Amino acid sequence: MAGKLTEQVSTAAVLGGLAGAALGAGRGRRTAGLGALAGAAVLATSEYVARRRQRPDEIPALPHRILASGAVAAPLGWAAGALTRQPAARVALAAGGVAGGLGVRPQKVALGPAVGLALRPVVARRTPAQAAAVTVVAYRLAAAALFRDPQVTLLAERAAPDDLPFVVPLAAQGGYVGTDFVRTLATELDGDYTRDAADVGIVASLDELVGGDFYPTAVDPLVREFYEHTTRFALDIEPEWRAWVRPGYLLYRTALARPLGQANVPMNQRQAQRGVVSRIDTVDQPDGTRVRGWIRSYADDDEPIYVGIYTTYRRGGRGYVSVGFPLPGGSFTATLEPRLRPGGGLTLSSHGAHADAGHYLTVVDPDTGELTTLMVPGFGEELQVWSDAGELRADHAFSLFGLPFLVLRYRIRRKD
């Protein structure tokens, strides 16, 4: 632990030194040098105190995180000013926009540019580095005052997988997930791989979910067949995006989703008309357990849409569905609580009455398999599947901090 603390403090000292030098730039080498020394000392001390006070399964204290944000912003602001020759006021506006965008929460996305705009008169005579640092710190302070519920919570650090049954700890080993992920996983698990397994479902049986107010016997037989024999059905998808999220999703899709080969949802109906191919790949392990990977891709070129590992588990007398979406070095897990829908439908929701339901971002240690997991309370989803006059329908709704941003409407038909 002492070695890790030394590494953390050393990294903070380097960052603080860069920030101090950037803040002192333009006033001579002596000022920049003194600024670097002061910045290194201040941020290293803050890092040391924050880490020493940090309790297990907690992130460092908010004041230190705000100070570190300002330290990151300063050299970036200096670089932006040097490369673009833009005045400090414009750098402040850009810094607010970037900081707000990283806040993810829609209200924070709007708050960032607002802070940058409000501070333009204040920072007009400052350097770009100073303008960026002041804007980011002011934004973080305002966001902390206005939004007190956390965006993420450190749930566990270096935990054993058995301690977190609601997490699916299957990570992509390279930088790309893609439609061959389950094949690669079979080699890692030393299991028997079956591509496009016949007559299997994303769950083995809905009976695994019985408990609480959920009774599988009350589920419509057609809905039950879809879950237990998913490969008998074909899907058509119609995305309905809220206008406010479209620009951010376009950036995310271009910069992350497509390069990663994961969570690449159609942007509009034109893209959805490329068609969807759905299959389940399985891995049968030596201990008798089966891994089920539901892979959805575009019909024209097999570009991945979703690669999800579907599992069920029981705790506290009830069952849950946990869907792990592999990422390089980790995974994003949606743990969903089952509920009966009027008319025999089935709802799976991340906003359950019990603590396990929710979303979890996990980093998997490649050497030990230990998990460091963040809970993401602001992300919500609900999947409803029901039968309408003998035809299956599904709505998959997503929200950020209570604001709906996407509904995927599925038409589900039996394959010919």
From TrEMBL:
Please, which domain of life does this record's source organism belong to? Bacteria
The identity of this protein, by name, is YndJ-like protein
